[in-house]
Amino acid sequence: xxxxxxxxxxxxxxxxxxMLAHAAQDLGYRVHVYEPSAQSPxxxxxxxxTQAPYEDLAALEAFARSVDVVTYEFENIPAEALExxxxxxxxxxxAGVLRICQNRWREKAWLRANGVPHAAYAxxxxxxxxxxxxxxxxxCVVKTADFGYDGKGQMRIATxxxxxxxxxxxxxxxxxxxxxxxxxxxxxxICARTRSxxxxxxxxxxxxxxxHVLDISIVPARVAPSVEAEARRLAVRIADGLEVVGLLAVExxxxxxxxxxVNELAPRPHNSGHWSMDGGETxxxxxxxxxxxxxxxxxxxxxxxxxxxxxLGDAWKWGDGVVVGEPDWAAVLAExxxxxxxxxxxxxxxxxxMGHFTVQxxxxxxxxxxxxxxxxxx
Length: 378
Ligand SMILES: Nc1ncnc2c1ncn2[C@@H]1O[C@H](COP(=O)(O)OP(=O)(O)O)[C@@H](O)[C@H]1O
Ligand SMILES: [Mg+2]
Fold this sequence. Notes:
- The chain is α+β, with helices and mostly antiparallel strands and 378 residues long.
- It has three domains: 7-91, Rossmann fold (3-Layer(aba) Sandwich); 120-179, ATP-grasp fold, A domain (Dna Ligase, domain 1); 183-377, 2-Layer Sandwich (D-amino Acid Aminotransferase, Chain A, domain 1), CATH 3.30.470.20.
- Helix content is 31%, strand content 28%.
- The chain contains twelve helices and 19 strands.
- The strands form four sheets. Strands 9, 10, 11, 12, 13, 14, 15, 18 and 19 form a nine-stranded antiparallel β-sheet that branches.
- The radius of gyration is 20 Å and the shape is globular.
- It binds adenosine-5'-diphosphate and magnesium ion (MG).
- The site of adenosine-5'-diphosphate (ADP) has 17 residues, from strand 6, strand 8 and strand 14.
């Protein structure tokens, strides 16, 4: 067991690392953040920072030696970096888990091999999109195998013309071509798993995206109890199968026929779990700290129906491509049912996640109504 007072190393300095650092510090842990770029949101709150590239093995080793357990908040960390860390320190979730989840070829192959329902797909090597698309059928979506997030590196293909354009755009890159799912809803379940194999899923969140970026998460998800139960079972089964220690987020589509299909896995805290910071019995960040340190897990229920709204750089006032003013926070700050979180990023940009707010209410309709009204005031 890693006890309060000991040190947790976090690879990655984004907002997930910042909120994870806060949760770790609330439990009395020291936090050391490793991040290549300057002025990161997590380094700003950490006890200690290493600013170095993920290719700097000496810096990684010194970092690993300075802490008692290492975790990550970011998926695009080179395998060599994780192996260097794992040779020195405990790393949770293990490097092998991230290796699978950070690459769509390996992730899909794992789902297929383990009998987890997923969208039909084909691998496209060297940009041979046409052949892959003819296997899968139209409409479909092309996704780069590596380094995708928030819809980056993705293109939906509906027509033969799209196919020609995609072939040019993705030439020379490893991709998956995936059947387009005309889903009823998108949901996610975040499951915590301890070193001894105890699992505890959070309630499913219903996720609404805008421009491929998460916009709103709603808890409880507006799905039948049987769907909720099945979604949690799936998440637990995958966390067990991967032997995750820490959190695993499982993104799913609910088809119009009522089936659940797994879209993506993320072995870390997830944007769709931010509701739990305010509306959960235990926040996802605290749960992750508990799991990787060997503390007992906390209860994972929702205290209240909760709606989480992402605040992107788009909400800033823009004129001719430069920021001329910040969002008007007054209404959110004045609302007793709302709680605002801002990540302290040095510079807003369109599409960049700058913060979020949650709204809790006695019933979901009220929480949704208040959240939408507040969103409009920013
Ligand atoms: N096969 C698909 N069918 C329908 N929508 C999809 C499909 N794949 C992705 N999407 C939409 O795009 C979003 C982002 O895709 P995802 O694969 O989760 O990539 P990432 O989150 O890494 O950017 C999904 O949450 C979903 O809204
Ligand atoms: Mg996703």
